[in-house]
Hints:
Shape: globular
Number of helices: 12
Low-confidence stretches: 1-13
Order of helices and strands: HEHHEHEHEHHEEEHHHEEEEEEHEEEEEH
Radius of gyration: 19 Å
Distance between the termini: 15 Å
Structural class: alpha+beta
Largest sheet: 6 strands, antiparallel
Strand order of the largest sheet: 6-5-18-15-8-9
CATH topology of the largest domain: Tumour Suppressor Smad4
Oligomer: single chain
Number of domains: 2
Amino acid sequence: MDDYNECLRGCVIATWQNAYLIHNPFAGRLNRGKSRLLQRTIETLTGRGHRITAVATTGERTAAGIARRCIQEGADLILAAGGDGTINEVANGVVGSHVPLGVLPGGSANVLAVELGVGTNILHAAESLSDLVPVRIAAGLLESKHDSRYFLLMAGAGFDAMIVYNVNAGLKAKLGRVAYWIGGFSQLGKPLPQFAVRVNGSSSRCSFALASRVRNYGGDLRIARGASLLNDQFELVLFEGSTTLPYIRYLIGIIAGRPKMSGVSILQTSSAVLECPQDQGIYVQIDGEFAGRLPVKLSIVPDAITLLVPRAFRNTHRPTNG
């Protein structure tokens, strides 16, 4: 596998001759553009020599199956056009294969595209596709009593997942990530349930746990400043507080670039178990989408997926762990 990774790091593929572009027709920017933006994106890709077959998702959690079928049909590249939720679904169909995944930002937050340095302009991302290089990375895995799903960015439990669960879909479509801020501030002063996080034999209690593979959160904030997609670990950030009031102080500290503060614990780990009393119904989100309720186990799956990244990202986000 080391030889394969070296090949991935050194190869540059100018054009893709059997690429499938899986898109969510209801993603924020693609929907607002009445599909014209998607067509312009395809024209940009084909104009640079890529051969593209566009496939629309047909409903929630259909993208993974579509990606698997495209790979079975000989795809040499899978492109995901949409928000982070769509990218997550597509990634769940690509994990375990060696077909690269490319990101075309078309959603509200576009956390992965921002993290990679691809940007939030889908046309610019399409123009730069030939300049990206494939790297093999780990993925996160969430396992619950009823489901298991991979994630590329983060898993959150407690306060942030409650906001994700309750965000108004219509408001999100109109305002994008601003809808999440509105949802968060609407909870000020309200009580928050506590839950247990078990890591390496130790247990902690918190009201918000974030297991992140990326530094930015929601495209605006940097919470897990030591996280990297090229590491085989999460950065696990635990926030204490029985109400939402301490989160005002936490937010100010994060904005100021000082995430280490009283009430906040930060550690690196490859697995964690999140538990709570059954009657509390504490929510979980992965990559910004609702993913059920506690209890769950979070773990790292090494060598899981090939991701197309800018060369500068690969060079500046070197792994810091073995």
